[in-house]
Amino acid sequence: MPLAGQIVGEGVRLVRPLGRGSHSVVYFAVGPGGQPCAVKIFDEHFAAHAVREYGNASGLDHPRLVRVIAPVRVDNQPALIVTLARGHLLFERYAQRPALTHERRAYLLTLVHLLDALAYLHGRGIVHRDVKPENIIVEPDGSAKLVDFDLSGPTRESFDTPMRMGTAAFQSPEATRGEPLGPESDLYAVGVLLGWGLHGALSGPDFPPPPLPDPLDALLVQLTEPDRTRRLGNAPEARERLLELASLPY
């Protein structure tokens, strides 16, 4: 049965799909008072992710994060009502690359907002663990919100067996090894995004040299240091360093 038009929760009407991730599909929806929102519907075998996301994110309230409002069921599937993040996925928003060459101010604002979101999360003892372009929604001016907390969890959370959290291209070395993760692991992913903004490509064996030296190269080195004990692991400090090197006030 089509999901569009269905009423879920306390009068939230599904309107149309916005996108699909590895664990869920997200619908644009309208609340009982006409206010826009989104409904994240999980595949049944990812029900534990829905429970985890609600448990970790329901108390979060920050302008650079989507807010998880309530759990619901949609056609007997687990779902979450969340606030609507307006804009496009980061890679879609920055079609001209390298982003820091073509839209320097906007891309810097995106990174600042991402670091604001992470500073708040880390201050609450939570690590996002899946910072990647698909989880960053960007508006035309570069304003951004971080979404999706179904892999998030407490700092240094350990499991009975090693767990490789995140998406391969943005995983820190310790995440690849399945070790417990801390704030420095999220900041490694920020470093990968900074490198993409500088170079127009993700890091790897064919990582191209920058077209010109950039003051932000120094921050890139600090954020992508393989040794987590030597990596810059403090989001407010990384934000300050970013603005200092970029010489742009926000």
Q: Could you characterize what this model shows?
A:
There is one protein chain. By secondary structure, the protein is α+β, with helices and mostly antiparallel strands. It has two domains: about 5-80, Phosphorylase Kinase, domain 1 (2-Layer Sandwich); about 90-245, Transferase(Phosphotransferase), domain 1, CATH 1.10.510. Helix content is about 30%, strand content about 20%. It contains eight helices and eleven strands. It has helices spanning about 45-55, 90-95, 100, 105-125, 175, 185-200, 215-225, 235-245, and strands at about 5-10, 10-20, 25-30, 35-40, 70-75, 75-80, 90, 125, 135-140, 145, 155. The strands form three sheets. Strands 1-2-3-4-6-5 form a six-stranded antiparallel β-sheet, with helices on one face. A three-stranded antiparallel β-sheet has the order 7-9-10. Strands 8-11 form a two-stranded antiparallel ribbon. Helix 4 runs antiparallel to helix 6 (about 185-200). The longest helix has 20 residues, at about 105-125. It starts with 6 loop residues before the first strand and ends with a helix. The model has no long low-confidence stretch (mean pLDDT about 90). It comes from Deinococcus hopiensis KR-140. InterPro entries: Kinase-like_dom_sf (IPR011009), Prot_kinase_dom (IPR000719), Protein_kinase_ATP_BS (IPR017441), Ser/Thr_kinase_AS (IPR008271). Keywords: ATP-binding, Kinase, Nucleotide-binding, Transferase. GO terms for molecular function: ATP binding; protein serine/threonine kinase activity. This is Protein kinase domain-containing protein.
